[in-house]
Amino acid sequence: MIGPLHVTNGDIVADALAATSLPGTTLVWADVLHAGPLEAEPARSRPVRASFLARHGWGEAAILEARLERRDALLAEAHHAGRPIVLWFEHDLFDQLLLLQLLTALSGAQPGQVELIQAATHLGSLEPSELEALWPTRQPVAAGTLAEAAAIWDAVCAGELEAASGVRCDALPYVEPALERLREERLEPSRTKRQLLAAFAAGPATASVAYVASQAEEDAAFLGDAWAFVAIEELVDDGLVEPTDGAVPPACDTETFASRIFTLTSRGLARV
User: What is the pLDDT of residue 162?
Assistant: First the structure.
């Protein structure tokens, strides 16, 4: 028996699930949907997201698009075959946007086909045995929840966060806090940038130290270091932050960028 398709937020969790006794296979569903342009329809989303990620150094657009197409195809294959699908996602902004995108793609699923495990902790921090202990908490996703998730996701992609928040979805309790955090991230400067500026206000610091300080301000940390480094790079472009020692390396060169020391400019000091 082939078992269910487990869908989760990254390689760390996927590897941990593979080390459990749970049957089935795992599909990684990961994209920084809080950043860059969004499209609700998958065929339109793939080239848009691939182009955005390529511009930030994550590979060639054609290769990235092919990976997204393969990912979507694997989900669609399980969906249309009636295979059980179990979604493993946590409470933060990164995961909740992924979850909304997934549930939209699974509209029309058979009753009981899709189940959801919702965690109030970061799944990547759990051991295989701890993940397996979450298995009994899974709940079937009702057709009404799929429809509500699709309505929310459509509104998010259209940039209509007030409309998205107006859709009540009791089965997804972490969506509303995530939408509020997304609203803060879409301000200019974003909450992430404001937190990074505050970190540098304490004095010159490496990008890595500023990243850790900024994440300590989050109720549900969601941001990887690479995308915090993109935010620092943009603060440099805006004249608010500057390196203390030479040129700014590309943010996608995370190892080099992490150790580079930055400080606020006079303009940056005025914004803190």
Answer: 97
